[in-house]
Write a structure and sequence with these properties.
This protein is mostly helical. It contains three helices and no strands. It has helices at 2-14, 21-54, 71-103. Helix 1 (2-14) runs antiparallel to helix 2 (21-54).
Length: 112
């Protein structure tokens, strides 16, 4: 990451026979960029955490998460799938029973 690059840069400076003003200025610029990058990363993390804390779930109304991450929503989805599956199985059973009843031979007891 940034600290590895900085260490590499420092090592290359230490290997130089002499340090002139341009080299020192390059070192200062590199160091300030590394610090700014670290500060930017921290600021991004803080902003993301603040945004997440303000997030309000559309499903349960609790703050701190959104609907795709809501445990109550996921549980409700799972229960709905199981309920639909059970309902579909009952419907299939009834259809099979009706088909079996229609296919069964009928006793014709009508008097002619």
């Amino acid at each position: 990451g940034a600290s590895r690059q900085l260490q590499s840069f420092i090592s290359s400076l230490l290997l130089k026979d002499s340090l002139d003003k341009a080299t020192i200025q390059a070192f200062v610029t590199e160091e300030s960029q590394c610090h700014r990058h670290a500060d930017d990363s921290a600021a991004i993390n803080i902003a993301m955490n603040a945004a997440l804390a303000k997030a309000l779930c559309d499903f349960c109304g609790i703050s701190g998460h959104t609907q795709p991450d809501c445990f109550r929503f996921k549980k409700a989805q799972q229960e709905a799938k199981q309920s639909n599956k059970a309902r579909n199985n009952k419907g299939k059973k009834r259809t099979e029973q009706a088909n079996a009843a229609n296919a069964a031979p009928k006793d014709d007891k009508s008097d002619s």
